[in-house]
Amino acid sequence: MKKLKLLNYSEIKPRLYQEFIASTAIKKNTLCILPTGMGKTLVAIMVAAYRLEKFPKSKILMVAPTRPLVNQHMKTFRKFMYLKESDFIALTGKIHSSDRKVLYSKGRLFFATPQLIRNDVRNKILDLSDYNLVIVDECHRSRKKYAYTSVIEYYVKQCSDPLILGLTASPGGIKDKIEEVKKNLHIQAVEIRTEEDMDVKPYVQEINIEKIYVELPEEFKKIKRYLEEAYRKRLNWLMRSRLIFSLKVSKRVLLDLQKEIGNMYQQSKDFMTAKALTTCAQAIKIEHAIGLLETQGVTSLYRYFLDLEKKKKTVATKRVLKDPDIIKAMKETKDLYIKGIDHPKLEKLIEIIEKEAKRKPNTKIITFANYRFTVEKITKLLEAKGIEAREFIGQAIKNGKGLKQKEQIEILNEFKYELFNVLVATSVGEEGLDIEEVDLVVFYEPVPSEIRSIQRRGRTGRTKPGKIVFLITKGTRDEGYYWYAYHKEKKMKKILKGIKHGFKKPEKKKLSDYVS
Q1: How far apart are alpha carbons 173 and 334 in whole angstroms?
Q2: Rounded to a whole number, what is the distance in angstroms from the first to the last CA of the chain?
C-alpha cells in the first residue's frame, strides 16, 4: 500500500473510512461529519500531509475555537507527522503582532483561534495567499458573525487555489443552520459517517444510557409556586401589551423580545416602551430563578438572590426584589440554605459515583454541570466522601474565579494518569479537548442542545464500552431539555442522511491511491 512520506505510520494506522473521507477532502472543500472519537483529526492530518507533499512551498492553517484546543491540535499533528518542530507554530494574542508577522514567514503548519487570524488578516499582518489548506475544527460554529466566517471569506479572496476542510461531530438539528455552515465554508462535498455505517460500526463501542429520575421536594415546590406567580404577572402584562401571545414562552423568546424592545426604545424613548423593556427583563430574571431551583438546587438559587441584592442598579432588579412573592421565595430559600437542604440530585449523584468507585477503584468519571457554583458544590461533596475530584472550569470571568490554560492542562494530565477519579466540568469540557476516555459520564442536568449532548456523551465509549447517566428532576425543565435534545438529534441524523444523498457520491478511492 502506498504511503504518505510525512505521516508517522508507526504511531497511526488509518482506517478505511478515514482514507475514503481524505480522498474526497484532498480534491474538494469538504464537510467531514464523524462521531466523537472516530478520528476527525486524523483525517485532517492525512489531508495536510498530502497537500504539503504535493505543494512543498505551501502552508497550512488550522483554526479551533479555544486556545487549549489550538495547542492540543498542534501536539497531535507533531506526533503524527515527520516535520521539524519549528514547522509547527501555535499563535496566541500574547505573542506581539510584530513577532507573529515573523512567525508567519517561518512555519509551515499554523494553529490559532479564528479571532486572532481574522484580526491579523485585517491588520495586514497575515496574507493567506500561500495557504493551500485551511482546516476548521468544530465547524458547526461557522454561522452568523462567528469569526470562522470572516476567516474563510478572507481566505477564498486571497488564495488562488483554496481548499477547506470542516470538521464536526454534530452540525445541528436544523437544516437551515447546516446549510448556512455549508455556504459559509464554501462546501462542495459532504462526507458523513454515523455509528450505523458499516465501515464505522466495527470501531463503535456499546454505550449504556440510563435516565435516573428524582422528585422535586415539597419545600422546593412551595418556592416554585411563589416564583411562578411573580413570573405569571410579568407574562400577563406582556400578553396584554400584545408583545407575546402565550404564557408558555421559552427563555430564548424572552431574550429575543428584550432585544427587539431595546431597539424600539433606542428610537422612541417613550414611557410604555421603557415599561415593556423593564417587565421583560424582570421576567427573564425570574425565569432564571425557576430554572436554578428546578435543575440546580437551593445553594444556586440562594447565591443568585444574593447576587441580585448586591446589584440593585437596574430598575428591573429593584422591582423584582420588591415583589411580595419574590420576598417570600427568598425567605424560604434562605431557610432551606441555613438547614443545609439542597437538590436531591446531589445525593443521587454522590450515590452513583460512590458505587462506581467501589466497583472499580481506579475508575474515571466526568460529571458535567452547567454552572460553576454547582461544579464547586459537587467537588466539595465528593471530597468530603473521600473521592478524589477536581473542578474543570473555563478561564476567569469578571470578578470570578477560573482556571488558566496551564492549570487546565495540568488537571487533564493528572486525570490521564489516574491521580484522581472524578473530573467535574462545565461546558469547557465538552468541545474537542483531549480528555482521556472515561468509564462513566454523568449529566447533572440535561442540556437543550443536541450538539452539546453529543459532545458530552462522546467522552466515553471510544475504545471500550461506556456508561452515561442523566439525572432528571420529574416535572421540570430537566425533562423538557432531555427530550428536546433527543428529538433534535434524531432530526439532525435524518437531515444528514438527506444531505449525504444530495451530493454526488465520490469515487471509491482511498487516499493512498492518490499518493505516488
Answers
A1: 41
A2: 11
Spatial neighbors of 292 by CB under 8 A, at least 6 apart, are 300, 301, 304, 371
Q: Residue 190: helix, strand or coil by DSSP?
A: strand
Specify the fold of 16-203+497-514: Rossmann fold (3.40.50)
**Contacts of residue 200, Cβ cutoff 8 Å, sequence gap at least 6:** 17, 34, 35, 38, 193, 194
What's the gap between Cα 320 and its chain centre?
Answer: 32
pLDDT of residue 465: 85
Contact 171, 33 (CB under 8 A): yes
Sequence-ordered list of residues with C-beta below 8 angstroms from that of 349, at least 6 positions apart, any chain: 367, 378, 442, 444, 471
Cβ pair 81, 48 in contact under 8 A: yes
Q: Using one digit for the tens of pLDDT, what is the confidence trace for 133-192?
A: 999 999 999 988 899 999 999 999 999 999 999 999 888 778 888 889 999 999 999 999
Q: Spell out the CATH class of 207-214+343-474.
A: alpha beta
Q: Would you say 294 and 224 are in contact if contact means Cβ atoms under 8 Å apart?
A: yes
Nearest partner of 48 among 70, 73, 69, judged by Cα:
73
Of all residues in the chain, the percent with pLDDT exceeding 90 is 66
Instruction: Yes or no: say if 405 and 433 are a contact pair by the CB < 8 Å rule.
Output: no
By three-state DSSP, how is residue 492 classified? Answer: helix
Task: Name residue, grid cell 437596574.
Answer: 314
Q: Are 286 and 236 in contact (CB under 8 A)?
A: no
Give the H or E element holding residue 143: none
C-alpha cell at 289: 430563578
Distance of alpha carbon 516 from alpha carbon 261, whole angstroms: 62
Instruction: State the pLDDT at residue 100.
Output: 93
Residue-wise over 361-382: b if at least 16 C-beta within 10 A, else e?
Answer: eebbbbbbbbbbbbbbbbbebb
Distance, in Å, from the CA atom of 412 to the CA atom of 417, rounded to the nearest integer, reads: 9
Question: Strand 59-63 and strand 109-112: pairing?
Answer: parallel
**What's the mean pLDDT when you consider all of the chain?**
90
Residue 315 burial by CB count (10 A; 0-12/13-18/19+): exposed, middle or buried? middle
Q: Copy the grid coordinates of residue 97.
A: 503582532
DSSP state string for 37-49: TS-HHHHHHHHHH
Helix then strand count (H, E) for the chain reads 18, 13
Cα–Cα distance, 51 to 430 (Å, whole number): 30
Same fold for the pair 16-203+497-514 and 218-339:
no
Q: Give the full edge-to-edge strand order of the sheet including 164-168.
A: 88-90, 109-112, 59-63, 131-136, 164-168, 30-33, 189-192
- Could you tell me which CATH number the domain at 218-339 has? 1.20.1320.20
> What is residue 212's predicted lDDT score, i.e. its pLDDT?
97
| Domain boundaries defined on the chain | 16-203+497-514, 207-214+343-474, 218-339
Rg value, the chain, Cα = 25
